[in-house]
Amino acid sequence: MRGANPVRPQEGGDGQSLWIQEVFYTLQGEGPFVGEPSVFVRTGGCNLRCHWCDTDFESSPWRPSLDELLARIGELRPAVCDLIVLTGGEPLRQNVVPLIRALLERGLRVQIETNGTLWLDGMPDDPRLTIVCSPKTPGLHPDLVPRVSVYKYVLAAGESDPGDGLPTLSTQLPGQGARLFRPPPGAAVTVMPRDDGDAERNLANRQACTAVALAHGYRMSVQLHKLLGIA
Ligand SMILES: C[S@@+](CC[C@H](N)C(=O)[O-])C[C@H]1O[C@@H](n2cnc3c(N)ncnc32)[C@H](O)[C@@H]1O
Ligand SMILES: Nc1nc2[nH]cc(C(=O)O)c2c(=O)[nH]1
Ligand code: SF4
Ligand SMILES: [Mg+2]
After folding, report:
1. Distances (CA, A) of 43 to 88, 115, 148, 155
2. With a 6 A CB cut-off, is 172 part of the ligand 3 pocket?
3. What is the pLDDT of residues 21-41, one digit of tens each?
4. What number is the ipTM of this complex?
């Protein structure tokens, strides 16, 4: 959250127990499934420390077993919803492969929100699994890149490369220059205005993001849930 979280390395483990921040039923507010009813599973901890991160993922002590977590998802998920979004923190920091397999076996769709720096062996290669990557670093995990469906860049006014409109500053070190990972040719790119917690800045970020989308042919995604005042 806002660059105050500890940086935690990827954990091993068999994935039979996970550190979970929260599980909640809402509308997907971002990316290719925006507006879809979804059960969110927010995992704890992150391996990065983005100075503008808008999320708390360090305050829950909950470490359910896989069965307990699946039961909780089942309690929250009405039959009209078949989309489970794994986010965090950084969801690939823990071994979420058994969770993903269990969800797919139940006939559900799974979408991952990831910073793209990590990968997990045994990740299912299933059309019902969608990986959305929001790059935060110059490099991404090479095994993840071929599996990315959409690259979702967070943009702020005055921080876009004039050549391709993508970010020019480090997400980890405020004010420092950095060339974040650039997507392969032909990849689907979405841009999303950064929430800086300030109405004037956020308006400027939305306007800048709109201009970049129009100039470069990117899809624009606003954080719908914040407009609606939902989780
Ligand atoms: C909290 S992150 C968790 C998943 C993963 N760690 C990642 O960064 O993609 C979920 C999404 O929120 C975005 N995000 C985080 N802080 C934001 C902010 N202040 N404004 C807009 N988007 C933000 C991230 O870029 C990412 O797409
Ligand atoms: N409604 C809603 N949609 C979201 N899409 C990505 C989110 C995230 O924090 O990963 C998020 C979130 O926190 N809430
Ligand atoms: S990688 Fe994602 S969860 Fe981690 S600090 Fe950055 S935006 Fe927040
Ligand atoms: Mg969020």
Report:
1. 4, 13, 20, 24
2. no
3. 999 999 999 999 999 999 999
4. 0.99
